[in-house]
From TrEMBL:
Main function: Involved in cell wall formation. Catalyzes the final step in the synthesis of UDP-N-acetylmuramoyl-pentapeptide, the precursor of murein.
Record key words, sorted: ATP-binding, Cell cycle, Cell division, Cell shape, Cell wall biogenesis/degradation, Cytoplasm, Ligase, Nucleotide-binding, Peptidoglycan synthesis
Protein name, UniProt field: UDP-N-acetylmuramoyl-tripeptide--D-alanyl-D-alanine ligase
Family designation: Belongs to the MurCDEF family. MurF subfamily.
Gene: murF
Species name: Zobellia barbeyronii
Amino acid sequence: MKTAQLHNIFLEFPEICTDTRKIKEDSIFFALKGDNFNGNKYASAALENGAAYAIIDEKEYVESDRHILVDDVLKALQELASFHRNHCRAKVIGLTGSNGKTTTKELINAVLSKKYRTIATKGNLNNHIGVPLTLLSIKEDTEIAIVEMGANHQKEIEFLCSLAQPDFGYITNFGKAHIEGFGSEEGVIKGKSELYEFLIKNDKHIFMNADDPIQLQKLGGYIKKYGFSTNQKEFYKIAFSGANPFVKVIVEDNSIESQLVGSYNFTNCAAAILMGKYFNVPLEKIKEAIEGYSPSNNRSQIITRNGRQIILDAYNANPTSMKAALENFSQMEGNHKIAFLGDMFELGSITPTEHQNIADLATTLKFDEVVLVGENFNRVETNLKKYSSFDELKNFLNNNQLHSESLILIKGSRGMALERILDTI
């Protein structure tokens, strides 16, 4: 079936499902494949549970005219998404970077939705499947779509740009993330910059942090760039005015106080403010959006448990974000500071060095207590407490009472699931 024909069906049944456990009435089921599953086997079950059509790529599973056979289900999903993106009138903002993508995306959406009909990537569905699903959520009346793009190897952002065709773009930063796939920090910069390359090649608009020397160097001669800066006159001025614990900024003599912990969230707020100004959202509405946004999903959250104040930042971690979190934690006021740090993943050959660096940094910052968790941290040379697994940490917590008025930082990669500490303390 041609993509245009499939798109006509999609316009009649605009709900997409890829999981038979979450089938919605009159949806289209795409029978994707993975290392351990074959969606074709569940196509009939999807139809029985209410799907209007099932898109499959193995002929033996065709049982009715509601089974639509294509050469490759994933490719069909991606091509449909690209076709739909070009069918709709919405402007697309592409967003990538090593740290802060999802928070920045949520802030941008909060600001722009004050004036426009927007859609944005749900959660962190930002890969070769998530981006198509986001594009397919664009409605006829959507004015702006904010599309988050993740990557862990070269050419991935380039491919996602070919699907999303962004009109605008922003890179949060370049850090030590996914080194295993990118090969080096230079590889990270090259991979993330594929967004810039697409936008420049197609004469599109770029938002930038003009205080980031890498961005400034790469975009110095490009005309269609719009930046924020704390001190450069040629860019929109947004001043940082503290983060103890919540980030505060000054814009046009107006103070804006977010609900985000950590000075590292300043640039995330600034990017959303810059885009709000570009799209003519009134400043009072921008302030309302930034101050009203409350983080969730273990990202820069402040939680109180039994008199203890906890900074829960356990959604993900890499050396850059870990260093920023520790330095910010060191500047916060607290009677008894405890940092729980979990392993950082996907670092490849630099894994031992970077875990040692973080342990050394944590030692110099002189917190009251630092607890390292995971096999990688367990191998470092340090006098800090360290446990090879969460179960070992749990045993320690069950047998040792933490200070009753502690200020606690919890930071680690998603696979460590350190938010489980909350159930113990």
